[in-house]
Amino acid sequence: MKKSKTKHHIILVLCLIIAGIFFLYEEFAKEKIPRGVPRIKPDKKSELVLPKPSKPMVVIVIDDLGPNKNAAAAILNIKAPLTLSILPQQPYSVWTAEEGHKLKHDIIAHIPMEAAPPHDLGKGGLYTWMTDAEIAETLDNDIRSVPYALGASNHMGSAFTQDERAMKALLSELKKKRLFFLDSLTSSKSAGFHLAQMQGVKAWKRLVKIAGKKGHAVLLAHPRKNTIDFLQRTLKKNDEVVVVPVSVLVGN
User: Fold this and answer.
1) Domains, in order of start, for the chain
2) What is the tens place of the pLDDT at every residue in 228-245?
3) Is 153 left (phi over 0), alpha (psi -120 to 50) or beta?
4) Would the pTM of this model clear 0.85, i.e. be above it?
């Protein structure tokens, strides 16, 4: 009888010890969680919700850089993350790209393409009469002359961008180089955007709608004196939009 009582007593003590351990564990765990912070059950999935941008985003692309060092220097003096769109194989193409990269600007190659009616494209121009191999070779030389290029856009090109065969050759090469295509939409019949989507190349259409309505917009500008003065004056007091590099919207 005594042995039985002793056994029950031991079992009771063990139960109390186990209960005490669980109690201390729970209290210790509570102390590690700051007060006012709800505890999440292990089997409950929590989703990361990113805050929406407080202001619309605007990409400002400055086209036609490369031929003129003074114009490029004036653009580089603007305190904003502009996107520099540089004509290839020009006297200051490399200099502008390198200086822009030092200042953390996004760089893209502004490739001359056949227009309608025809215009002189200068060095590095792409024409619809070129074979796929000629387009690939010319584009390669163009990209090499614009260091740090993240993508390419078209300079003129109202004829070239409508030619599906030529555009397929261009976009195929850009995809190989892991570069995006920014369609300046010099022609409303441009095949660039839908072909880029089909081939999986990141592409941008020129946005005409207000950034406040869409949440973002792309502005194409040129390094003329009145444009430079306007940007310097406006961006200093800008509080309506946030200027971002093109890579932010493209996702590079």
Assistant:
1) 57-250 (3.20.20.370)
2) 998 888 888 877 788 999
3) beta
4) no
